[in-house]
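Before the break, one more example. Copy the sequence into your notebook; we will annotate it together after we see the structure.
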Amino acid sequence: MSFAGLWPYIFIAVAGWLATDLWRWAGVLAGNRIDEKSEVLNWVKAVATALVAAVIAKLIFFPTGTLEASPLWLRLGSVVIGAVCFFVGGRFRQIAGIAAAIGFLAAGLAILGV
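Here is what the structure looks like once it is written out:
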């Protein structure tokens, strides 16, 4: 067995680990010094929330793959059903919201034959 064929994969794994691990440690060190009620942390939370909302909006209005064949009303309906189940889900609200949205979308795709 030769490392000649494995060398690029080893390099990618090590470089990827170093790149992500460096930022994780920087986050740990900086996170210990940030006040939980600071404006900087509120800004970070707002940006993170906006990014998640943008990804969801992109999936709804500009889908790719199987979602591209589904009608807009089905994608919007699954988001609404998921949100309703999230808000009334009680203790397991995240699981209820995600499962309901996926179930509604899957059932709709199956009924439409997409």
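Residues 7-31 form the longest helix (25 residues). The helical segments are 7-31, 39-61, 66-69, 72-88, 93-112. Try to locate both features in your own notes.
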